[in-house]
Amino acid sequence: MAMRIESLAGELAKPEDVRLREVLDALDGRAVIFDGLGERVGHLLDEMDEWIERAGEAERLAEERLAHVNQMQADIEAEQRGGWRGGSVLAPGRTRRWGRS
After folding, report:
1. pLDDT (average), residues 52-68
2. Given a cut of 50, is residue 86 above it in pLDDT?
3. CA-CA distance, 15 to 59, in Å (whole number)?
4. CB 75 within 8 A of CB 83
5. DSSP conformation letters of the chain
6. For a surface tag, which of 42, 67, 70, 97 has the fewest beta carbons within 10 Å of its beta carbon?
7. Cα–Cα distance measured from residue 65 to residue 59, given in angstroms and rounded to the nearest whole number
8. CA–CA dist 85, 90 (Å, integer)
9. How do residues 18-31 score in pLDDT, each as one tens digit?
10. Are 35 and 29 in contact (CB under 8 A)?
11. CB–CB of 20/11 below 8 Å?
């Protein structure tokens, strides 16, 4: 019984697409209806992986752009408060003498 539980735990630890591919491979050749099913579903899974990868890239790009916009907004707000002169905002507690560089 313990061996069966360990085997099931190992199977459940696999990603869903891997388990699906294994089931489809096992079905291939069992009946005419299943012939080629693994290949067709495998193609769809490969496409889904590509879509997921593209979505991840788009999300990373959006996060980078959002961070850039947030920095620009912080710079604009600092400039409006009078604490910005073309460089980075000073660390808290530091003051700049506007008459000198």
Report:
1. 94
2. yes
3. 23
4. no
5. -HHHHHHHHHHHHS-HHHHHHHHHHHHTTTSGGGTTHHHHHHHHHHHHHHHHHHHHHHHHHHHHHHHHHHHHHHHHHHHHHT--SSSPPPPTT----TT--
6. 97
7. 10
8. 10
9. 888 888 877 777 77
10. yes
11. no
